[in-house]
Amino acid sequence: MNDDTAARRTSVANVRRDAFVLAAAVGVVGIAFGVLARTAGLTVGQACVMSLCVFTGASQFAAVAVISGGGSGVAALGSAVLLAVRNALYGPLVHRWLLAERPSTRVLLAQIVIDESAGVGAAQPDVESSRHSFVAAGLGVYVAWNLGTLLGALVGDVVGSVEAWGLDAAFPSVFIALLAPHLHSQPARLTTAIAAVVTASTIPFVPIGVPILVAALSVVPGAVFTSRRARSW
């Protein structure tokens, strides 16, 4: 076995190990989602179908939180879509890795385009490694997320109050985790601050879930600020 072959096998083994660890962590969050979905009134089947078809944790948490709070289906869908749109931004990146695949295969793999799979793939040194890492991480997370959802939904009635177990903190924690890496720039901090003010000020006056939709308009002043700063340079 030459050095290149040994190095590639080591790299593949490392990727699979990392994908397994990542999938296990996501599976734990999937259990929390399953429990929250059941306490929000979804059946086991509904929770599982959502994870199988939607497969984007933050959007699912958002939809369930709105439903649990008594919000409308439109508000729940709007909140979920706003968060899911970011996955479309990974398209141009992932497309390069899958050019060698058949169109039907690319359609199927589109289901696993998420933060984790795109991130693991982007961290690799070449296209072949990126493709392998993307698929390994994506499929691993998909299986773990759905198994976690099923387990959480099945034990949801046994767990009882999510507040008693601290699982009610899972939803805001997911959003904090998504938000934190993006606060390094001034436009991002401005957008976040405006969104927080808009959300807090509209909660008493509009239906549940709508403040999140309204807060999305906060990207406008952030974009204007970025544009003006770019012109000044």
Name a few traits of the molecule.
single chain; 233 residues; 13 helices; globular
Poorly predicted sequence stretches spanning 5 or more consecutive residues: none
Total beta strands: 0
Q: What percentage of the residues does DSSP assign to strands (E)? A: under 5%
User: How large, in whole angstroms, is the Cα Rg?
Assistant: 20 Å
Helix share bin? over 70%
Form type: globular
| Element order: H for helix, E for strand | HHHHHHHHHHHHH
The major sheet is characterized as: none
For the record, give the distance between the C-alpha atoms at the N and C termini, rounded to a whole number: 54 Å
Provide the domain count.
2
Description:
α1 packs parallel to α3. The chain has 2 domains: 3-167, no CATH class; 183-233. The chain is 76% helix and 0% strand. By secondary structure, the chain is mainly α. The protein is globular and about 60 Å long.
